[in-house]
Amino acid sequence: MCGESSVTSKMMTAVRAGTIIDGTGKSPVKDAVILIEGPKIVAVGSERDVKVPQGATLVDGSDKTVMPGLMDMHLHLGTVTDDPTEPNIVEATGKASVSLRTIYACREAEAYINAGFTTIRDPGGWNIAIGLRNAIAHGLVNGPRVFAAKVVMHATTPAESGIMRGGAGVLAREGADGPWQVRAMVRDHILHDQVDFIKTLGSGSVSSAVEHFRVRRYTLEELTAMADEAHAYGNFVAVHAYSAPTVRVAVEAGVDTIEHGPFISDDMELVKMMVNKGTIWVPTIIVYSNRGLTDPKKTWIPPFRRGKAQEVWDNIEKNFRILHKAGVRIAMGTDTARHFIDHGDNAWELEWMVKFGMTPMEAIVASTKMGGQALGKPWSEQLGTLEKGKLADLIVLDGDPLEDITVLQKKDKIKKVMKDGKVVVDRES
Ligand SMILES: [Zn+2]
Question: What is the pTM of this model?
Fold first, then answer.
């Protein structure tokens, strides 16, 4: 071991931390060290237990907090309209050019990594997010890990949802109808479109100009086929659903994450079912808040959308408190999209989670460890916490988020961001 250390230490990085919050929910550790070899963490602990090898590259956070990079499990990259005052953003984004959307998405990726987000999940911007994911992996764009999906549309989904269909000029009218068509579309997304997961709309939406979010999209047979087919490929399913009956169909079908779900607590049996099955809930609070769709200053938001968002907002705190208290697994997600919330302001979500009853530590776990869990295996074993064997995605923060969760919103306080063991943002040099 001693003989090897001079060789391996050349490739080692040591992060010194005044405090480590490791993302597991365990108490913070003072005066700690994280040792990193290549992209992976090889040791974490108090500086008494973890010695810095000679020759290791030092990242000094000895007067700062070091924690896992933030993870947002629900946002939409490249949601761009040619005219920013266009009220029907869903349809207009579908008409914007792919090249314009792509350029915006590159800038948004940079905003994320600069704000300390090292992993993001885009459940419905497929032709932009998949290419961007690859461009970041190729080193062309500085950005977070991107997990991308294309939406499995139901035949009854209105044609306005061009953006979700990957539209960009073409409002395709295809959609699955019945379990066998659902299976075929899931296979198509996985085998041909290189998606990282399967996304679907189990209900209508707040965004839609033509239907209410209580409208049910899929039958139990269809969603069971979707989950079964996705799981057969080692993939997972995220379902957008609002009302308790539409969420219930998805949970019974065995899907992995529920997006939005502001009325789940209308059905306490369903809450129990989610706890028992371990279904992960991604609440997306800020998009409905007065910083998002119910912001009186955002005058371009049309009344149909503002009204539905207000209906959601009026129930959101009660629902969140009930599900949190019941022990539903919660992963942070914001539904950030240009015009609604600026990309990079996603850490506002943690402030609302704390206002709605989480401790700051619970909000951090929801935004780190639970993000990893929401991505399923093998990513749940590689992302989300600062533990031996995981990928070294972390931030060095000037402040204590357990004292004040809003410090995570202040980009100038995020002094360094590391992804895959490499410093990719440095505000101190
Ligand atoms: Zn969304």
Answer: 0.94
Contact 280, 330 (CB under 8 A): yes
Q: How many angstroms is it from 354 CA to the middle of ligand 1? A: 22
Domain extent, residue 390, equals 2-68+386-426
* 74 CA → ligand 1 middle, Å: 6
Same domain, 126 and 47: no
Alpha helices in 217-302 (DSSP H): 220-232, 244-253, 268-277
Report how far residue 113's alpha carbon sits from residue 419's, in angstroms, rounded to the nearest whole number: 9
User: How remote is the CA of residue 384 from the centroid of ligand 1, in Å?
Assistant: 22
- Block means of pLDDT (10 residues each) for the chain, 429 residues, are 44 96 98 98 97 95 98 93 69 77 94 98 83 95 96 76 42 74 94 93 84 90 98 97 97 98 98 98 96 89 90 98 98 91 96 98 98 97 98 98 98 98 95
Q: How far is the CA of 76 from the centre of ligand 1 (A)?
A: 6
Cα–ligand 1 centroid distance for 201 (angstroms) = 10
Does 362 lie in the same domain as 395?
Answer: no
**Separation of CA 61 and ligand 1 centre (Å):** 35
Sequence-separated (6 or more) residues with CB below 8 Å from residue 421 = 13, 36, 37, 38, 39, 40, 391, 392
Residue 35's CATH number: 2.30.40.10
Gap from CA of 128 to ligand 1 centroid (Å): 15
Give 44 Cα–ligand 1 centroid separation in angstroms.
Answer: 36
**Do 260 and 182 belong to one domain?**
yes
Closest to 47 in 3D by CA, of 38, 58, 37? 58
